[in-house]
Design brief:
The complex is a heterodimer of chains A (about 160) and B (about 300). Chain A is α+β, with helices and mostly antiparallel strands and about 160 residues long. Chain A contains five helices and five strands; from the N terminus they run E-E-H-E-E-E-H-H-H-H. In chain A, strands 2-1-5-3-4 form a five-stranded mixed sheet, covered by helices on one side. The longest helix of chain B is centred in the C-terminal third of the chain and has 22 residues. Classes of the chains: A alpha+beta (about 160), B alpha+beta (about 300). Bound molecules: flavin-adenine dinucleotide (FAD) and FE2/S2 (inorganic) cluster (2 copies). One FE2/S2 (inorganic) cluster binds next to loops of chain A.
Chain lengths: ~160, ~300
């Protein structure tokens, strides 16, 4: 089945089987392996991408369903060169990752969350990240990095 | 690729969906948000030969305010859309209060109201809300349209009153009643996980401050969401007090339910949770109905 979709601003056209998951299409079809795959049943959040601006599990969407959609993956976050996106920068600075497996999903979850909640409380951050599992950090630094990211984004915005 | 091969259709009208369902019978599955169906397909627990995608069907994602104060919600309204809707918050505050407990934000962005109800997971929050509010669903099939009350719709473990060839098209939430108050509470290991026990309570007080109606729906206590009738009987006709809500909690936890044990909670713990959550939810619901109970029942 023919699909046309935009990923990080680049249009792609492909012929895919209906059973191909969006996560596998991104990773194997487009070789965008920044989107990770942990559980493939919606529990871990590693595969989170933005579909028309909303964070979704790419393992629970078929690629054919993304026909005509605008997608954003972690590869599109950094503006380019050595520069990081403010959220990435905050995660680096505040040790918001260790092995980094969960990080792409967490970053993509936070992009729309911080847009809608520019100054979240700790409890709000924990609720927003309740659907993202991390096996390394114990979450403390992820929460701290998120709040640092929020303050960096507030500076960028003003 | 994880799911087994299937044929995929993107109908544009409800009529086309009904035709496809008639043609393919139990070979076909409807795909709504996919948040329950796709996991089971990824594990090949479900291997439908035909997948009918409802995401392209027109007219299933409306949120319409009825003149009588009711609210009609199309089956394909996303859980996140309902959660953020000012109309839902105004007309059906119990639903707005409950939605953040349904899975995680990323799942609510895809998951639909209709898919959640049709899936009929006994641990699901929304069926309990529908029961507490005496909501109904509209379904359509080859013989036309019919309306089914929540009490009859949730027939058993992942089982509904939907007949083969039918789809759920909308949910109808009745208007709020003067003197009414509701509350939702659950206990889960982590926000967004399925609850060990949850309760949706809806009460109505009359002008004299007596409890006129009490619907107390429990989830995760058996094969389907259920109304705690004995708990209601402790309240109706009485002036709400600390004593009546305590009695209702005990009736719910010890008489109304026969809960299962699993790795998350024992039978005794589920009974205890139901007892406490019903008492607390009722206390809040009565307060919201304008009947303050006093003595800080918590
Ligand atoms: C990690 C995780 C955690 C979750 N936690 C919770 C939770 O805490 N509480 C909770 O309630 N849910 C939870 N869910 C489930 C989630 O709410 C689902 O979105 C919902 O149960 C199903 O809705 P859907 O639109 O995704 O339906 P789908 O997955 O597309 O469909 C589910 C079933 O309903 C049928 N169906 C769908 N729409 C219709 C229709 N209009 N008419 C007839 N049949 C139809 C499908 O054929 C399928 O059998 C969780 C899911 C995941 C992955
Ligand atoms: S891989 Fe998608 S949620 Fe785990
Ligand atoms: S940093 Fe290793 S899983 Fe989160």
């Amino acid at each position: 089945m023919e699909v046309t979709l935009t990923v990080n601003g680049v249009e792609h056209r492909a012929d895919v089987e209906p059973r191909l998951l969006l996560s596998d299409f991104l990773r194997h079809g487009l070789e965008l392996t920044g989107t990770h795959v942990g559980c493939e049943h919606g529990v871990c959040g590693a595969c989170t991408v933005l579909m028309d601006g909303a964070a979704v599990r790419s393992c629970l969407v078929f690629a054919v369903q993304a026909d005509g959609c605008e997608l954003a993956t972690v590869e599109g976050l950094a503006p380019g060169g050595d520069e990081l996106h403010p959220i990435q920068d905050a995660f680096r600075e505040a040790h918001g990752l260790q092995c980094g497996f969960c990080t792409p999903g967490i970053l993509m979850t936070l992009v729309p969350f911080l847009r809608e909640n520019p100054d979240p409380s700790e409890a709000e951050v924990r609720a927003a990240l309740s659907g993202n599992l991390c096996r390394c950090t114990g979450y403390q630094n992820i929460v701290a990095a998120t709040r640092l990211a929020a303050s960096k984004l507030r500076e960028v915005e003003v | 690729m994880k799911p087994a091969p299937f044929e995929y259709r993107r109908p544009e009208t409800v009529e086309e969906v009904i035709h496809l369902l008639a043609e393919y019978g139990d070979e076909a599955k409807l795909l709504a948000g996919g948040q329950s169906l796709i996991p089971t397909m990824n594990f090949r627990l479900a291997q439908p030969a035909m997948l009918i995608d409802l995401n392209t069907v027109e007219g299933l994602d409306g949120l319409d305010a009825g003149d009588d104060g009711s609210l009609r919600m199309g089956a394909m309204v996303r859980q996140a859309m309902a959660e953020k809707s000012a109309l839902v918050a105004e007309r059906v505050p119990l639903l707005a209060e409950t939605l953040p407990y349904v899975a995680h934000a990323q799942i609510r962005n895809r998951g639909t109201i209709g898919g959640n109800l049709a899936h009929a997971d006994p641990r699901s929050e929304l069926p309990a809300v529908m029961l507490a509010l005496a909501a109904s669903v509209t379904v359509r099939g080859p013989d036309g349209e019919r309306s089914i009350g929540a009490r009859d719709f949730f027939a058993g473990f992942f089982e509904t009153a939907l007949e083969e060839g039918e789809l759920l098209t909308e949910v109808v939430l009745p208007p709020a009643v003067e003197g009414g108050g509701q509350a939702f509470l659950e206990v889960s290991r982590r926000l967004g996980d399925y609850a060990m026990v949850g309760v949706a309570a809806s009460v109505v007080c009359d002008g004299a401050g007596r409890c006129d109606q009490a619907s107390i729906a429990l989830l995760s206590v058996g094969s389907r969401p259920m109304l705690a009738e004995r708990a209601s009987a402790c309240l109706v006709g009485e002036r709400p007090s600390r004593a009546t809500v305590v009695a209702a909690g005990h009736a719910a936890g010890n008489q109304d339910i026969d809960p299962p044990a699993d790795m998350h909670a024992s039978v005794a713990y589920r009974r205890r949770l139901a007892t406490v959550l019903v008492r607390r939810a009722l206390t809040t619901a009565f307060e919201r109905a304008g009947c303050v109970i006093g003595e800080g029942a918590s």
